[in-house]
Every structure is written in C-alpha cells, then in structure tokens.
Design a protein that fits this description.
The chain is about 75% helix and about 0% strand. It has helices spanning about 5-35, 60-80, 90-120, 130-150, 170-190, 195-215, 220-240, 245-265, 270-275, 275-300, 310-315, 320-345. The longest helix is centred in the first third of the chain and has 34 residues, at about 90-120.
Length: about 350
C-alpha cells in the first residue's frame, strides 16, 4: 500500500475522533434534556455504581455516526487516489463487503437502541426480552452471512491457522450464527465499567488494522481505523467518571463490528484471540451461573466462584479501581491480539 493510503486513513481516523468527540457536546445535553438516563440495579454491579443512576445513555451514537460517515468516505477517497480499476468486479465486491459490515453493525446498534429506549421509558433495567434479542440477532446474522457469500466469500471451512476443517457447507453457517450471538452479547457484557468497552474495542480495531494490511483486505482498514478513532472520541465522555454511557446502542454496534470484521477476514482463530477479553467476560457469567445452580441443587444453597460477574466486577470487588481495570483488560487485549498477529504471520 502507498504512503498516500496510510495518510488518508490516518486523517480519516482523526476526523472520526473529532466527529465523535465534538458530537458529545450536542448529544450529552440533549440526552439530559430528554432524561434518557441509565437505570441502575445494584444487583447488576457493585453497590457504589448506584451513584451512576441517571447518567445519559445511548452515547454510542457518537462513534456510530463518526464510523459510518468516515469509513465510507475513507474508502472512496482511497480508491480515488490509489487508482484501482473501478470496473473490476473484485473492487466492487470489496466495497460491498465493507458496506455489509457497516449495515450489519448498524442493525445490531438498532437492536441496542430499541433495548435502551424501552429501559429509559420504563425507568427499568429490563428492555427487550432475551428471546426478542436473539431472534433479531439471528435474522441480521443470517443476512450478513448471506451478503458475505454473495460478495465473494464462498468458503465454508473454519480456519484455525494451524488447521482448516473441510468444507462444511450449510453447517458452517449453522455454527456461525451462535458464534455471532455469543460474541456480540459478550461485547455488551464488557460494557460495565467506565471506559472499558471502548478501550478494549479501540485495541481490537488497531490489531485488526494490522491484520487487514497483512491479508490485503485494504477496504476494511477504512472501517477499523474509523472505528478506532470513534472509540477514542467517545472515551472523552466515557472515562471515569463517565459523563455518558454507550448503552446497548453502542455495545451492540461494537460487538457486530468486531465479529463482522473477523468474519470478513475469514480467520476464525484470529477472531478468538482478538476477542479473547470479551469471550472471557461472557464465559465468567456462564461459569458463575452454572456453578451456582449446581451447588444450589447439590447443597441447598448456591455458591459462587467469582465475587461478581462479569469478571470485571470481580476485579472491582477485589479493590481494583475502574482505571486499573481498563488498563489491565486493555493490556490483555493487546497481548492476545499480538498473538493473533503472530499466528497470522506463521500460518498464512
């Protein structure tokens, strides 16, 4: 890739950062005016989180708007200045894959928005039911996988780097739907400490930028860098003490973005490694619930492995400040992401 390509995408990142950061000047007071505050249930987090009651939610619109605008603009500006053949079908398919990722993430953001809206209207922390969420996520997930197939990714093997499965046919898509649902909701669970989800996703997008460059998926670099800039702009408003939360609107968008980029790259081991922090967050909840039910049935009382889940609350209950949790989890994301890059270089 040329120097001009990286200059353009760096400028796109900065523009996304500015749009997300500046939009908060308008959005945060507007959310205050509408009284779109986050309902807080003490049982969902440490008791001291009760003081966050009423903090504006749906702040994810900051990076959603900046990412959608700048990623599409960045793609076309790069094509204009790097001069690919505009009649080449492969170039058209690359844009359609980028567009599929943008639409996929936006639709999941819509699910989150509906969930957030119900919560603030009811003044309760219960929005869409689990079945309603899973149903919508399944429909949009199927649509995304169909789009990838239509725009060039006809492979149905699972790529683990050191080993690839045979072509799985329809079973590949049957396997991926639960993966999409798990990972997008895992990102949602990570949004429980000020600045955590935005910081971890910023790291993930930087790692994906390197991976896209290695694999020659240049069109996706516009998206990963735009979202990285958007996350940084949002963090101005979300670092502790948060002036605004991203809400499910933002976390669902981020979850679909992380999953979508990895599936477009068709590197499944890479997805696991880059998303490892999110995976562990969700896994901690599953372990806690399973163990609690098991011990309640066996001993008559439920027992816990962690002080509280998701696991970032365990660290919080153990004395970690929110800043320390953000730094620790971000470093973990960097380490696992670098491992992903190493496996990509070793097996690609």
């Amino acid at each position: 890739m040329s120097t001009s390509f990286w200059i353009i995408n760096t400028l796109i990142t900065l523009l996304s950062f500015v749009i997300a950061g500046v939009s908060g000047v308008i959005l945060v007071p507007f959310l205050h005016k509408l009284k779109f505050g986050q309902p807080i249930k003490v049982k969902d987090g440490p008791q001291w989180h009760a003081k966050k009651q009423g903090t504006p939610t749906m702040g994810g619109f900051m990076f959603i708007i900046s990412t959608v605008i700048t990623s599409i603009a960045g793609y076309w500006i790069c094509r204009l200045y790097t001069g690919p053949d505009m009649t080449d079908q492969a170039n058209h398919d690359s844009f359609y894959r980028l567009l599929a990722c943008v639409v996929f993430a936006a639709l999941f953001g819509l699910i989150g928005f509906i969930d957030d809206f119900i919560k603030v209207v009811r003044k309760d922390n219960d929005g869409l039911s689990a079945m309603q969420k899973v149903g919508l996520q399944t429909v949009f997930g199927v649509g995304f996988l169909f789009a990838l197939y239509k725009f060039g990714d006809e492979s149905t093997c699972i790529d683990l780097g050191f080993w690839q499965t045979p072509e799985l046919g329809i079973f590949y898509y049957i396997i991926l739907i639960p993966v999409i649902i798990y990972l997008t909701n895992a990102v949602n669970l990570t949004d429980g400490v000020d600045g955590l989800c935005g910081s971890v996703t910023f790291v993930a997008m930087l790692i994906f930028t390197v991976c896209c460059s290695i694999l020659g998926q240049h069109e996706m670099i516009s998206y990963t860098m735009a979202l990285a800039g958007g996350c940084l702009g949002f963090l101005i408003w979300n670092f502790n003490p948060a002036k605004c939360f991203m809400g499910d609107t933002g976390s669902m968008f981020l979850g679909a973005s992380v999953t979508g980029v990895a599936l477009i790259l068709h590197r499944h081991l890479l997805l696991v490694l880059v998303a490892l922090v999110y995976i562990i967050e969700a896994l901690s909840v599953m372990i806690q619930v399973t163990y609690f039910k098991y011990t309640k049935k066996k001993y008559g009382e439920g027992r816990r492995i962690f002080k509280m889940t998701p696991i970032h609350h365990h660290f919080e209950m153990s004395g970690f400040s929110e800043y320390k949790i953000v730094i620790t989890f971000s470093i973990a994301g960097i380490i696992s992401g670098i491992l992903g890059i190493i496996t990509l270089l070793a097996y690609d």
